[in-house]
Amino acid sequence: MSIWSKIRDAVLPPRKEQPAPQPVPQAQHPDAPAAPAPRPQPIAPAAAPAAPVDVEAVLTQKAAAKGETLNWKSSIVDLMKLLDLDASLANRKELADELGYTGEKDGSAEMNIWLHKAVMRELAKNGGKVPAGLAD
Fold it and tell me: What is the mean pLDDT of residues 35-56?
């Protein structure tokens, strides 16, 4: 599982996949005339999207439960620690690759700030409500 998907799954509720309807085969006697082709079933409308998840509220609650002071609002390292993920440079480099970071992957402040903002933008794209200051 990718670092990004671990972050997404720790903050946002799991996605519910709708199974594709499967045709029900009908037994037919070998001498019986061919049955007419089954009519296509109407496609059920997709379920209405769930209300956006308040990312700040979820992370604030996790921080309170953890009982540790973490600066998750601006630090990718602290955000990953809050979510019980390994915040090592190797994992941040992997996350940088996943999210498309093109700068030096040396653990610099520039890289870490970019990662934090990119994670917040991705959470917003995936159904999270992220305050503007965290994603800009």
Answer: 63
